[in-house]
Structures are given as structure tokens and as C-alpha cells.
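Lecture 7 notes: from sequence to structure.

We start with a single chain of 384 residues. Read the sequence below before looking at the structure.
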Amino acid sequence: MNYKLASSSWGKEEIKAIHNVIDSDVFSMDKKVVQYEKNFAKYFGTKYAVMCSSGSTANLLMIASLFFTKKPKLKRGDEVIVPSVSWSTTYFPLQQYGLHVKFVDINLETLNYDLEALKKAVTSKTKAILAVNLLGNPNNFDEIKVIIGNKNILLLEDNCESMGAKFNDKYTGSFGLMGTFSTFFSHHMSTMEGGMIITDDQEIYHVLLCIRAHGWTRNLPMKNKVSNKSKDWFEESFKFVLPGYNVRPLEMSGAIGIEQLKKLPSFLQQRRKNALTFIKLFSESNKFIIQKEIGNSSWFGFSLIIKDTTPRNKIISKLTNASIDTRPIVTGDFTKNEVLKYFDYSIHGCLVNAKKVDTKGFFLGNSHEDLTKELHYLHRVLSE
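Now the structure, written as C-alpha cells:
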């Protein structure tokens, strides 16, 4: 048996959508992207959604936009708290914009913030908390809200691994000022490559539209909170007002997104069914810690952390020989990486749990397909 990390979620609808774009001869960002953004915002209950080329560039735009509002919400040197376990491009935009990055430990069971550590890490210097909903699992936003209290601290969300997750019946990604999503191949739905930012803030929305495409005014509505736009289309064609990027999505990706979003409820339903099987098989294990669900997880994948002294490489070798795909739990402890020499950063506490995840953790893929046979196979292999 072969237990793959991920599989394609496309069907005839997505193929037809691609052919329709080819037939239209319009390949750069156009009406399909706009429609997908509207559908996405409606689905997740926010006013605005902005599609971009990847979840990584969604994080980049999210951080960049905070510097370009009329009254900038962040400035270089400001402190932003992050969990010590996440993907690299959670952190890189913070470094690229000169922010001070404070790493905080995670909870060994939820894999999200250790809330006691987070509480102690917040100081008068803290300007933002970036909450990462890891492997589909929501953070406890009630507790984070209490920690923030009446302090002037921004809440941002990297929700790239947790599309469709809910906490208190509210979608993750919609708790903060902004939330980011990824539609990479292995994620909950796929648009080839793709990302999305959602927000209820109109000024932020207009800034995102501008910096997504060159920092020009062309994609802004006539009345906007970034530029006094003229009615002369020729003059506005190449008018630049913000230092932007070109991280626009393809029209093809927008067309695929429209179809994938229709299927998302069924994708999530199957992922949660697979999770029930996984929990049944491993929740009583004396060898592994599995992720504790907070709220309603969308179960990106299945994490296992070794309890005893068994070397992880021995288990990984056994899984590989059994044709079972596995990966580290995201980056493990990110602070071990050499790239930190380029960061302005500090570490709160000892990151005990992040280090355990780093040396003892691994994860298996989840899917929109029924994985009952694969999960029982995994259990047999790990029980030997």
C-alpha cells in the first residue's frame, strides 16, 4: 500500500474551467479572479478578499499593508510575537520589513501558542500578535482576546494550513485584522499555486489591491482610501503611489478557485471523517502524542510526537520503507535555522515544546479522499 502525502482534488469541473480561460484568451488577472474573491469573502463571512500568487505572498502583503495605511499601523523596530513552530514565510515578511520578531513556545498538544507563555511574553513593546493556526487547528481566540485586553495590539492570522476551521462557530482567518490562506496543491483546496487575504477593513483592502500589482492605481476603485484617482484611464494606467510587488494570480487560478470553493464543504467533511479514524486508532497510544483539537479543526494533516526514547530516524526509515509519506511538523523549532542571523529577534523562555516537536515530531497527510485503509495500514506499521 502507498499512503501519499497529498492527492489532486481536481475533477472535470476544474479542467473545464481551465479550458474556458484558454478559450477566452485572457490569462492575466481578470473577471474570474474578481468573482472568486467575492465568493471567498462571502463563504468566510468577511467584507473583502484579495487573491494573490501564493500563501507566502499573502503573508507578505498582509505585513506590508500595515506600513502603508494613512496612519501606519506598524513601523520598523516594532515587536511582533510569533509562535516558534510555523512555516518559514510566516516569519520572513517580518524580517523584510525590519520588525523585531519575538518567538514564543507552543503547546505540545495543540501545536499552537502556549497561552501562559504568550501571556508572559506580551509587554508594552508588543505591537502585534501573529496567530498561526497549525495543521488545521484553531487557536483559542477567547484566551488570546483576554491576553490582548484593551492593549493597542494588532491580531493577525496565518491561516494557510487551516482553511475551513472554526472556533466558536466562526471561521479562523476572520478573527484578526487580516487572515491569510493558501491554495497550494496539498492544502484543503488547490488552485495550482494561490493565496488569499481576508479583512473587514476597507483601507487595508485598498492598500492590498494597490501593492499586489506594482503599487499602481489601476486596480483601485474610483473612490478609494489610497489615491485621488482621476477619470483619465490613460493617466491612471502607469501611476504608482505605493512601493508594491507583482504577486498577482493567474486568471486560470481564479477560475479553478470558483469550482474548488463549491467542493470545499465536502472536502472538509471527508477530512474530518478521516480524523475520527486517526483519533480512534492513536488517541490511547502509549508511544505517541497526537494533536488535541481546539474548536473545529479542518485537519490539514495528522501529527505524531514520540513519547519514549525511540530515535525518530528509525521510525521515519520504517515508514519510508513501507511507502508511507511523512514530513517534519512544519519547520519544527524555527529558531534553529541559520537564517536567523538576518533577523532582529528575541526568544521568550526556553522553547521546550518546540524543541520536542523538532526532534520527536512528524506528520502524515490528510485528504479529501477516504483514508480508512491507509490509516489502518499506518497503525499496523507503527505497532510492529
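The first strand starts at residue 48 and ends at 52. Keep this in mind for problem set 3.
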